[in-house]
Amino acid sequence: MGSDWEEARLDMIVNFQPKRTIKKGEDAPFIEMAAIPTNSKVPDYVSSKKYTGGGSRFSNGDTVFARITPCLQNGKTAKIDSLEEDEIAHGSTEFIVLSPYNKYDSNFIYYLARLPHFRAYAESRMQGSTGRQRVAWQALAEYEFQCPPSKDREAIGNFLTDLDDKIELNRQMNETLESMAQALFKSWFVDFDPVIDNALAVGNPIPDVFAERAEQRRELNANAERSPKSGGVSINGSENSYQSFFPNEFEFTKSYGWIPKGWEINRFKDIVEKYIDNRGKTPPLSEVGIPLIEVKHLPENSLKPDLNTKKHVSSETYDTWFRAHLEPDDIIISTVGTIGRICLVSEGEKFTIAQNLLGLRFNSEKASPYFMYYQMDGFRFRHDVDARLVITVQASIKRKDLETIDLLVPPIKLQRAFDNFVEPLIEKLSGDQNIQLSKLRDTLLPKLLSGELRIPDTEKLSKEAGV
Fold first, then answer.
1. Which one, of 158, 171, 174, lies nearest residue 467 by Cα?
2. How far apart are CA 416 and CA 129, in angstroms?
């Protein structure tokens, strides 16, 4: 730490009671606690809500900090920067507003509020009965820290913001790529667009359940013929070579309703080749080694698991203790607590799973990996899982019940065609880079704010992270 850093109270750079006026009855942006994600920069805004007086009021540059149990412990903190110029938003009394006296401090204050030491301090100053505890802004105002000069505060805040912006950009790109793969799966294997197109082309009847979709396809394909360069979601164009893989008529099944003719309905157990099941066993852990992932490491709406874990097993434990090991293209599903989270094992990843996760290896002649991932991520499969849950202390699903789920199984040739389409999209996912960026940010945050590490020292690290 430089000699120009000095001990200071938070209220030297933060205004806890800024003058903000909203007229009663006036519509203004409103942010509720549920809209604040955990340690994410910007909350989602609820539609405008009439101001009734009181509560918290904030504008761009402010940080909102959850003051109540358990939201404070869960890290609900957000920086406001998406309002219109001079616009004021409001929320409940559950927030403390940290408003910078100087605009250049806005990022620094936000990251200071995310500091584990600051959160621990806030928790230690909570008051009230159990379950309704809260911290007062006056207590936060007394928080003491080593305060760098203004130029260093600005540089630290900007550096950490660059990391978070990169993480957010990657997240948005991942979301777009995933949406594209999901849209193709839905078109081919839920809406059956290519089958409808083929049936329309030869004049075969369309089941009533697909009548509305058939009309949409008829209009869409007619527009595509009139304007071949118009694009759209039609099966035409780059996907045309696979049109012949689809039948041109439907058949009715008791368990699944109308499906493309020639496709099969198989029980889950009939296409699973091997289970990787460590349930009922807790392995000996080590500080370093091969990652052991739990349910929380299967992110929602993410094809790849998060390998950023503090739990590891030694190579000896990995080789001798576990019943079986994961291989590329295996699917992992959570079976206890948060049910139905799924991820796919990628090439080159070596890790093992805790007892509330189940690994699945499918018969490669019956099911392809990406097809199975998106089928298990779909509404019907999740609904079938929910119908089989066992509710005791916490929800769970037994392997024997999972095996009774019926799955739609198109010809393997068509499944592999789908995999060929989505694999280039999956390869562009930047989940691994986001994990590394998040680890870098979380490592640097306390070091930068304590003065242990200075901004010039981070140049090499930031270049390695691509920031």
1. 158
2. 59
